[in-house]
């Protein structure tokens, strides 16, 4: 019998940010370019990392635009 573990989650970390032009469409806060790192974890053991760049709101943390 196969037992599946569904404890898969993702943790998103902002590595560093740089101020960028633009404002957040949700709260009107300032936008910044951020280097993001997403770790996918399986039973709390990270097994996949992805680095990506996004424009996020410095106030509410919303992702305004992401780059592949
Ligand atoms: Zn915002």
Key attributes of the depicted protein:
single chain, 68 residues, mainly beta, 4-stranded antiparallel β-sheet, 0% helix, 69% strand, elongated, binds zinc ion
Distance between the amino and carboxyl termini: 39 Å
Largest sheet: 4 strands, antiparallel
Topology as a string of helices (H) and strands (E): EEEE
Q: Kindly report the spatial arrangement of strands forming the biggest sheet.
A: 1-2-3-4
- Please mark out the parts with pLDDT under 50 across 5 or more consecutive residues, or reply none: none
Secondary-structure-based class equals mainly beta
Q: Which percent band covers the strand fraction?
A: over 45%
**Number of extended strands:** 4
> Cofactors and ligands present?
zinc ion
Report the average pLDDT across residues.
Answer: 88
Helix content: under 10%
Shape descriptor reads: elongated
- Counting H and I runs of at least 4 residues, what is the number of helices? 0
Radius of gyration: 15 Å
